[in-house]
Amino acid sequence: MPYIPIIIAIVLLILAALIYYTVKKAIRYVKRTLRTVSRTAFNAASIMQGIEQSRNEQLSSKKSVSGMTRIYLPQIERDFPTFHYEACRQKAETLLKSIFLCLSSGDVQLLKHASDALKQQVTMQIEALRQQGIRTHYSDITIHQTEIAEYIKQNGRCVIVLQSAVGYVHYTTQNGTLVAGSKTATQQEKYNIELHYVQNAEELADYAESRAIGLTCPNCGAPIEQLGQKACAYCGSGIIELNAYAWEFCRYEKI
């Protein structure tokens, strides 16, 4: 039959066209899939890079402090006319730097302007690090800003909370191996330091068990609710003010 070769040729051409179309479609699909996978991988890498960059920016950006000095300082100066804020602020910053030096060296004797309560707090932290076989290192310490963040005055108790924005290089090692932090990157943190007003601190040595000493009437034991109060509001007994007033730094914390 003379048409059979023609029919076979047409069928072969159709099959070849179908194969070509199928292969071309498969190639396009593979290319499209590879592009999608590549974009996904790139986006994932970009996201992870963005997260890491954001984290690094947060660590390196100076922290803002709760600056309530303008509000609280006039109140404090009315209650304590001899209070010198600038000297207090400088002592707080010196104290904070000395805390980091103590933790780095393991020597609490380097602590400056600290009460017995604060010395005990730092001593316990040093001992905890020693028991874990961990060394913590602080360097390039910079205190950007210190402000009064809170003034607590209740039932004769007085606490000034100072807040500092601090920058430093901080890392931790164990058996000489870096386990946390960076030896080069600067971290930014915030710290609170509590300044307590203590009456007759030498006799009231147990003040560290509470946030501050509550002053009481020597006759009936009622709380003295107002600073400078001359008589007990409950029994009427006269109150003799002691001269052994003192502001002491009693506690610190990273926030």
Describe this structure in words.
- By secondary structure, this protein is an alpha+beta fold.
- The protein folds into two domains: 1-60; 61-254, Nuclear Transport Factor 2, Chain: A (Roll), CATH 3.10.450.
- It has four helices and five strands.
- Strands 1, 2, 3, 4 and 5 form a five-stranded antiparallel β-sheet that branches.
- The chain is elongated, with a radius of gyration of 35 Å.
- The termini are far apart.
Summed up, what is this model?
The chain has helices at residues 4-60, 69-79, 85-105, 116-131; strands spanning 134-154, 157-174, 177-181, 187-199, 245-254. With 255 residues, it is of the alpha+beta class. It is elongated and about 135 Å long.
Number of strands: 5
Shape: elongated
Domain count: the total is 2
- Which class of secondary structure composition applies to the elements? alpha+beta
Whole-number mean pLDDT: 82
Helix-strand topology string: HHHHEEEEE
* Helical residue percent band: 40-55%
* Strand fraction: 25-35%
Features:
255 residues; alpha+beta; Nuclear Transport Factor 2, Chain: A; 2 domains; transmembrane helix; Zinc-ribbon domain-containing transport protein; membrane; NTF2-like_dom_sf
Could you give the topology of this structure?
Layout: H1 4-60, H2 69-79, H3 85-105, H4 116-131, E1 134-154, E2 157-174, E3 177-181, E4 187-199, E5 245-254
